Each structure stands twice: as structure tokens, then as C-alpha cells.
């Protein structure tokens, strides 16, 4: 790969040996808030339901609206604002986070809260489409995978800390305080991005491709299919981790399991960041194989706490780096059209997320919790086979870029 892989003006720091940490950590915080926007309300459903006068199922629609908005917005809004300078667009999205979370905290209207979460979802979809290309453009080709891992570290951090801390703050100070805290984080990040993240403007030297051309680029299709299978399998188990643990006999330890999973995911993302530029393909295969083994092991109903604990750790380690691995692989293949490809990734991600919830609920009602890891293991094995066969396009052998 050359610097042509980014259609943004290259920065002076690309020639240095270190990473531009101030800018990359700002993107980390952006990925943290974007993840928290989508996940934290799930831990506040009881308080939200009481505060807005609806059922917990109705409160759960705040999560659905955000995810739906994110998936709906990613492709059209990324195309609509393709000519905007990247920092301006990121600041606009963060401003919507600030206003939307403040509105959620202040309103007593259920419909207004749904609208606020939907608009936040639109901004979240744009943010996800921006982050990968932005992180890659801050460094030279040989360090793009590592930069992506830093920027995407906000995802496992939000999973590890966001929901537990959000649930705790909601219990201590009320659910509205959690959304005010997210708004305050967005305000701080706006200042941080303005001060530390350089503006990137389109170089206008490359012809823009249309979406169908991006989708038919060699390697893009297999990566998106692997993404769908991986995310579907993960959320098939993660969304229904409570009944899954109940079937395994460990339901009283739900909070500990979620914390162990989250911390393991943080460690997994760190390991991927250290190794991705040399062994992207091997890491994808290893992570999928580890996840298959874990899902298959859970399907056998192990009653040993040590085995279950090891399984949760392996699950977290194998999933923690998945966003970084797949976004890096996709951006490598899409090259100059990385932002368009990432917008498709966001849409596929959210559709897989939603589909896993629907199928998981049906399986849980009709077949029981044991079928969840069984189905996940089969889908993950299929993803591994696709990766193995895509050795010349989607997941190439060898280092992803020269030093």
C-alpha cells in the first residue's frame, strides 16, 4: 500500500516513528462515546421506564432507535458530506451528541426521548464512518493498523466500563445523570478535537467511486460477510448472556462475567494493535478459531466455574480486536474510498446486531439457551472458512504493509 490508500492530505507526522497520541486518543474517546450512546441505555431501562412512564420494553426502544439511526444514516450521510473537511464533520457529530444527550436527560416526553436517540444514532453512524479513515490518515502506511487499534480502543473500554459505571451512576444519581455525563464528555471532546486533531481536507486528486464500485472491489465482499457472521454470532450470545449464564448455572455472577469479558476485550484489542500490521490474516483466523472453541464449549454446558471463566476470557480476547481487524482489512481493500466502505460496514454491523437479537429471542423461546452458542459456533466456522479462502484479496497472507 502507498499513501494513495487515503484520499486525505497526508500529515507531517507520518514520517516520524511515534504515533500522534493526542489526536488518536481523541478518536479513542469518540469511539467510546459512540459505543456508550448505543449500549449504556440498556443498563438503565428500569429507571428510564419509571421516569418516562412506559414499560421496560418501551424504554428498550431508546436503544433500538439509536441503533436504527446509526445503520440508516451511515451510507447516505457519509456520501452527502463527503466533501466536508473531516474535523468539521466530526465536530458536528459531537455537537449532536452534546445536544441529544442533554435533551434525553431533560425531557419528560417519551416521544422526544425517542427522537433524541434517533438523531444521536444518525450522528453515531457518521462518526463510525469517519474514525477509521481519520486514524489511518494520521500516520504512515506501516503504522495504520496500530493507529486503528488506538482509535478503536474506545469500543472495548465502553463495553468494559461504560455499562457498569452507567448502571452504578444511574442507581446513585438517577438515570438522567448518565445522559448528562455523556453530554459533558461530548463537550470536553469537542474542545479536545479542536485543539489536538488536525483538519483533513480532500486532496481532490482521485476520482470518487460510486457505492456499487466500492462493493465490487476485490476483497470487500468477503470482509463484509465475515463481519456480518462475526457480529451476528457475538451478539447472539452477548445480548442473551443472562439466560445463557442461567442455563450454565452462573446467573448470579452476571456482573462479574460482564466485567471479565470487558477487560479481556480491552486486552484483546491491545494485542491486536501490537501485531496487526504484521499478522492481520493470522490474527483473524486465530480469533475466529478461539471464538468457535468457546461457543462450542459453552454448548456442552460445562459446570466447572474455572472452565466458564476461561471461556469468557477467551471470548473477550477474541472479540476485543475484531472491529480493528475488520475495519483495517476493509480500509486496505477500499483504499481511497475507505470512508464509503466504512459506512457500509456500519450498516452491516447494525443489521447483524438487530438480526441477532431477533433470531436469538426466537431461539431462546423455542429451543432454549443452549442453541445460542451452537448456532454461533456454526456461523463462526463459516466465517473462518471464508477468511481461509480469501487469501488473495480480502485477507491477504503476510504483512499488510511494508515498514
UniProtKB/TrEMBL annotation:
Name of protein: MFS transporter
Q: What is its main location?
A: membrane
**Which residue ranges does UniProt annotate as crossing the membrane?**
21-49, 61-82, 89-106, 112-135, 147-166, 178-197, 218-237, 257-276, 283-300, 306-331, 343-364, 370-390
- InterPro entries given for it? MFS (IPR011701), MFS_dom (IPR020846), MFS_Efflux_Transporters (IPR050189), MFS_trans_sf (IPR036259)
Q: Indicate the segments forming the Major facilitator superfamily (MFS) profile domain, all copies.
A: 23-396
Membrane topology type: Multi-pass membrane protein
Thylakoid as UniProt keyword: no
List localization entries.
Cell membrane
Keywords, in A-Z order: Cell membrane, Membrane, Transmembrane, Transmembrane helix
Gene3D superfamilies on file: MFS general substrate transporter like domains
Highest taxon of the source?
Bacteria
Q: Name one Pfam family in it.
A: MFS_1
Amino acid at each position: 500500500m502507498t499513501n494513495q490508500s487515503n484520499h486525505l492530505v497526508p500529515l507531517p507526522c507520518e514520517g516520524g516513528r511515534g504515533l500522534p497520541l493526542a489526536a488518536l486518543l481523541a478518536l479513542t474517546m469518540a469511539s467510546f462515546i459512540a459505543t456508550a450512546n448505543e449500549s449504556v441505555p440498556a443498563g438503565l431501562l428500569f429507571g428510564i421506564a419509571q421516569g418516562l412512564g412506559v414499560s421496560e420494553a418501551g424504554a428498550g426502544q431508546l436503544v433500538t432507535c439509536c441503533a436504527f439511526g446509526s445503520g440508516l444514516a451511515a451510507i447516505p450521510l457519509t456520501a452527502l458530506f463527503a466533501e466536508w473537511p473531516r474535523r468539521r464533520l466530526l465536530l458536528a457529530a459531537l455537537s449532536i451528541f452534546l445536544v441529544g444527550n442533554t435533551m434525553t436527560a431533560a425531557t419528560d416526553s417519551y416521544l422526544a426521548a425517542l427522537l433524541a436517540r434517533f438523531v444521536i444514532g444518525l450522528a453515531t453512524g457518521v462518526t463510525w464512518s469517519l474514525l477509521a479513515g481519520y486514524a489511518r490518515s494520521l500516520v504512515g502506511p506501516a503504522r495504520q493498523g496500530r493507529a486503528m487499534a488506538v482509535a478503536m480502543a474506545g469500543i472495548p473500554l465502553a463495553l468494559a466500563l461504560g455499562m457498569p459505571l452507567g448502571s452504578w451512576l444511574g442507581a446513585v444519581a438517577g438515570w438522567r445523570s448518565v445522559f448528562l455525563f455523556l453530554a459533558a464528555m461530548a463537550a470536553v471532546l469537542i474542545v479536545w478535537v479542536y485543539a489536538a486533531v488536525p483538519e483533513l481536507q480532500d486532496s481532490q486528486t482521485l476520482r470518487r467511486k460510486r457505492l456499487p464500485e466500492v462493493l465490487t472491489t476485490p476483497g470487500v465482499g468477503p470482509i463484509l460477510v465475515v463481519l456480518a457472521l462475526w457480529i451476528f454470532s457475538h451478539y447472539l450470545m452477548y445480548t442473551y448472556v443472562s439466560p445463557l449464564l442461567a442455563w450454565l448455572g452462573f446467573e448470579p455472577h452476571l456482573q462479574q462475567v460482564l466485567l471479565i469479558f470487558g477487560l479481556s476485550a480491552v486486552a484483546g484489542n491491545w494485542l491486536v494493535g501490537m501485531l496487526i500490521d504484521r499478522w492481520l490474516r493470522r490474527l483473524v483466523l486465530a480469533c475466529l478459531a478461539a471464538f468457535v472453541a468457546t461457543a462450542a464449549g459453552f454448548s456442552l454446558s460445562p459446570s466447572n466455574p474455572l472452565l466458564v471463566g476461561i471461556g469468557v476470557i477467551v471470548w473477550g480476547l477474541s472479540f476485543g480486536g475484531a472491529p480493528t481487524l475488520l475495519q483495517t482489512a476493509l480500509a486496505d481493500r477500499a483504499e481511497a474510498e475507505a470512508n464509503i466502505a466504512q459506512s457500509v460496514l456500519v450498516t452491516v454491523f447494525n443489521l447483524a446486531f438487530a438480526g441477532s437479537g431477533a433470531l436469538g429471542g426466537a431461539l431462546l423461546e423455542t429451543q432454549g439457551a443452549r442453541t445460542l452458542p451452537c448456532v454461533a459456533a456454526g456461523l463462526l466456522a463459516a466465517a473462518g472458512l471464508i477468511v481461509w479462502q480469501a487469501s488473495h484479496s480480502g485477507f491477504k497472507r503476510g504483512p499488510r504493509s511494508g515498514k
